[in-house]
Amino acid sequence: MGDWLLGLPVFWMGVVIQAIIYLYTAAVYLVITRLAVGERAKAFKAVSPGMLPPLSVVFALLVGFLAAQVWSDGQAASAAVNREASALRGIVLLAATFPGDPEHRLRDLVGRHIQDVVNNDWPAMGTGHADLHLIPPNMAEALHVSLALSPQTAGQTIAQRELVGAIENALDARRQRIILSHSTINWVKWIALLAQAGLTLIAIAMVHSDNRRANQIILAIFATGVGAAVILIAAHARPFSGEISVKPAILLQVMPESTASVGKP
Fold first, then answer.
1. Residue 38 vs residues 41, 43, 47, 183, 215: alpha-carbon distances, Å
2. What is the pLDDT of residues 125-172, one digit of tens each?
3. Tens digits of per-residue pLDDT, 57-112?
4. Is the pLDDT of residue 260 over 50?
5. Is 263 left (phi over 0), alpha (psi -120 to 50) or beta?
6. 264 pLDDT exceeds 60?
7. How far apart are the first and last CA of the chain?
8. Exposed/middle/buried for 141, CB within 10 Å: 0-12, 13-18, 19+?
């Protein structure tokens, strides 16, 4: 499904998807109704109504399969962002163990990293173009600062070790969210879902071809259900794209106070 459609607000996405499905349904109804004369009408009526439940069940299974995928990706993306925020908060807290210039440098680096994430990473993840090749420069510098510290007490020695671990944890969480930002429903799955819905609509039109009013009603009901299912999946198709997506709010909440007022979207 097109990037432009997945990036629309849910309301307008729903309008577009439902309009397309209704247009297809109307075309199916008009074609079947026009063809349902003479021998073809008898052939259409010979189509067993018993095939409709299996077709509907297969469609429902496909919807469940895709819904499980997008919800799982969304939960994993949210967990990765929360883990990154916790790790960054840990860096800020542990930096206080080294008062003076090291603390200020680490707090400043964390603040600048969060600004870069919000201003650069999030837009790139929304379009699926975030890159894993480059290490975040602020986190790389924070790691160098942490490794260069000279602990004077046993507590500072432990804090230095925890600082390095927190930075590595933040980088790992960043890798996870960028990987998840490339997750989406591929075209094969979309085609399978829409083809199953389209075949079911055709079968319904054939089975009820002798009763136009009943045909219109059942086609409209099923088309509305198909639209609702497609909208539900499309709105969650990309964890970091669209109106219903993972936001960087939790990262902004852990922004060090000295930089909290800078770079908010």
1. 5, 9, 15, 50, 18
2. 988 888 887 789 999 999 999 999 888 899 999 999 999 999 999 999
3. 999 999 999 999 999 999 999 999 999 999 999 999 999 999 999 999 999 999 99
4. no
5. left
6. no
7. 28
8. middle
Distance of CA 30 to the CA centre of its chain: 37
Q: How confident is the model at residue 258 (pLDDT cuts 50, 70, 90)?
A: low
